[in-house]
Amino acid sequence: MYKFLAAAAFAALISAFVSSPVAAGTTPAPRDAIAYIGYPNDGQVVPANKPFRVWFGLRYMGVAPKGVKYPNTGHHHLLIDTDLPPMDQEIPSDRQHLHFGAGETETMIELPPGKHTLQLLMGDDKHVPHDPPIYSKKITVIAK
């Protein structure tokens, strides 16, 4: 009996994750838009405790500063050592969620020694992810 209940609960949990779409913001984005990190590359060694350059790539969409509402545009947010935030809320602004609301397409960051993840997430004029959300692959860098 308990095995059946555990299996049923597990199946319900899995189906909730598989069949539920990810909630996103209300600003439309092109379905073919792509955000990517142009540098550094996945697995690359970067200097620890020294600034290094990160540049952002974007295809089939434009960059506009925060507060500017223009079709098919947004601005970059760099996520450091964290997962994607909720897609239907404003992107947090803290040490793990860096905002580039002036329309920047690169930055200099400094990381302590160790393994770190970087990921880009596009936000609309109000820092909310688009629909569909536009985000890059999460890459790993090693700071030495």
UniProtKB/TrEMBL annotation:
It comes from Paraburkholderia humisilvae. This is DUF4399 domain-containing protein. Keywords: Signal. The keyword Signal applies. Residues 1-24 form the signal peptide. Residues 54-141 form the DUF4399 domain. InterPro entries: DUF4399.
